[in-house]
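I am going through a labmate's work and have reached the protein record below. What it holds is a sequence and that sequence's fold in token form. Please read both lines and tell me whether the tokens look consistent with the sequence. Do not assume that whoever made the record got everything right. Thanks in advance; the entry in question is below.
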Amino acid sequence: MLTIEFSIWIATSAFVILVIAVIVTLRSLVVRMNTLTATATDMKQDISRLSLECSILIQSTDETVKAISSSVQAAQGIVQATKQISQTIEHTAAMVDEVTGKISHRALKYVEQEKAERQVEDAIQWAELAVSAWQLWQGVRKKQLDNSAARD
């Protein structure tokens, strides 16, 4: 009989432990569910706040886009004027380039002509120097021949 009572006590104790474990687990789940509910409520509030901020941002962006659109339309006249100025500047630059090319060509011709004239002048000066050197050499040679004839 003792073994039956002992078995009943063990079964009862096991059941009590099982019930306590189930209660602790359920209590832990309730605490977690409360935490999850609080977190979900916080997230809902954050989403509502972000939604309101996004709505305000979208309205602000819409107003900005409208302002930019009107500015772009106003700037189209400036763009057209700038294009015309650019074309005028390109035309002027082309004309200046053409004139510069002609001036450069004429200056080059002038420099070449001056160079040729300078070369002729240099050649004449060298020729005069050579003639002077030849005359000097002839004079020195004549003196040497006279001196050597006078000694003989």
User: Anything to note?
Assistant: The chain has a mean pLDDT of 85.
